[in-house]
Design brief:
CATH superfamily of the largest domain: GAF domain
GO molecular function, one term: kinase activity
Keywords: Kinase, Phosphoprotein, Transferase, Two-component regulatory system
CATH class of the largest domain: Alpha Beta
InterPro entries: Bact_response_regulator, CheY-like_superfamily, GAF, GAF-like_dom_sf, Sig_transdc_resp-reg_receiver
GO biological process, one term: phosphorelay signal transduction system
Mean pLDDT: 82
Low-confidence stretches: 138-147
Radius of gyration: 61 Å
Shape: elongated
Distance between the termini: 165 Å
Number of helices: 18
Number of domains: 3
Strand order of the largest sheet: 2-1-3-4-5
Pfam family, one: GAF_2
CATH architecture of the largest domain: 2-Layer Sandwich
Amino acid sequence: MKSKKNNSSLDILVAEDSRTQADLLSFLLEQNGYRVTVAANGRLALEAAQAQKPTLIISDIVMPEMDGYELCKAIKSDEKLKDTPVILVTTLSDPQDVIRGLECGADNFIRKPYDERYLLLRINYLLMNLDMRKEYKMQVGVQINLGGQKYFINSERQQILDLLISTYEQAVHINTELKLRETELEHSNLVLNGLHNIAAGLNHAMTEREVAETTLERALELPKIQAGWISLWEKDSGFRLIAARNLPPALLREGAMDGLCDCRRRFLAGDLDHVTNTMECERLKAAKGVTHGLCCHASVPLWADDRAIGIMNLIGTEHGLFDEAELKLLYGVGNQVAVALERARLYEHLGQLVEERTANLAAEIEERKRAEVGVIRLNRIYAVLSGINTTIVRVREEAELFREACRIAVEQGRFIFAWIGKLDADSQQVTPVAQAGRDDGYLAQINLTSRGDMPGNCALTAQALTEAKPVICNDIASDERMAAFRSEALKRGYRSVVVLPLMLESNPFGVFVLYAAETGVFDDEEMKLLVEMSGDISYALETFRLEALRNLAESKLAEQVEELRRWHDATLGREMRTIELKREVNELLGQAGQPPRYSSAEGNE
């Protein structure tokens, strides 16, 4: 803004309905020495001008009650005011603005938003030419065709010339701004295309090296960038140069990129948390050889979440420095690169992660399958347990219980073979008394005994009877206890077996043996149910024994009662006959007139 001049004798009337715009314009004019009067619309401005003629009027176009064109026309129609210069503030967005300005007699146009310096120059120009315009007043009539319409302009020649010159100046200014905008737009398009290319390249990069090389290759498409390099920080090995583009020969020498520099030291200290211009790169300064005059670069930290993983250094054209907007842009690029590097690291380890996850998933599926098979087996065992318990309630004979137990184990428990044997306490031999399923002469080949030292014996049966507890073989093919019978067992489809001792009065009474077609069948949960089942059978055997004893006792008691009844009947009959004879003797003696021989008590005994 110019220094304050001696314009205190000059009055400027401002017609502006915006209080803010009016205050700004008043402040500008008063700072340059003018006296200012402000009117909030065209009507008030006209009244103010009629009351006190101003030196110059500056009016907005769009106002309530009376707009700027109407105000200007009213001023130019007033004999006392018509020589007062009027500057209209307009957007000049339509050719009609010029025509209407000419029609109303405006002296000058100022385009919104106005340049303060240009506004003051136009005011000075109009004020300096006031006297000249008074001397050379010449009314001219001009007919103009515009947009298919005819307009007749009746204004002073100098006034028309001034208005057209101001319009031309504004047009030139607009054109200059448009060219500047075009340059900025072109620059923005280059930046956007460069950023798009970087993002597209990063989306296809799968390794750290691909990410770094793609970034630098595409970064060179951005305005001002002519070279760069990317270093990653490894906690164990330090900085590692991963990619470089267009470096000067001095930095391509062996060892030129090794060691610390200012930007790397700031990175390690945690001070490189934003993009900065490194004014004098000590690496370039210390490099031996051709550097092409380069000495500075931008240092872009690469952040992944809250962790810095490396540095991207970019050398610009000319002096190599970047403005704030460019630094902000490079910071965003750095963030994209960091994310892509993290993704690449994840991708590089993806094979291992996939293998681990696949193995875990396979193990999980296998475990679920085993669990499902286990549930199915448990349901079968529950069915066996329920069926045998129902049988225990229903039957009263040991042989029938044994037959039903074997049948239920095969049909509902899906065991391939089941048999029950009774132990002879004297001979220690086990005799099969019931069986179901596939035998095919298997039991006939085995010496079933509780003695472990007998040749051809079944070690599992002997162990179960000797130790009075279940014996499990979950893999016949590998269990040495089944070596003697393995071939025959496998031939019949036996893969695992359990021998359950049946107890009577706490002593082994026999065995319940179950063969399964799968290995590993008899786990802890299944064995709990099978032990419960054998316990129920043992309880039933105990019940059968007690019931037999009770029946025997009842039979003996009945015999004793019958014998006592017969003895009682015989004894009572003899006594009654004696009493009857005594009564008859007394009657005969009475008939003979003799006294009774037996007393009444004796006769009634």
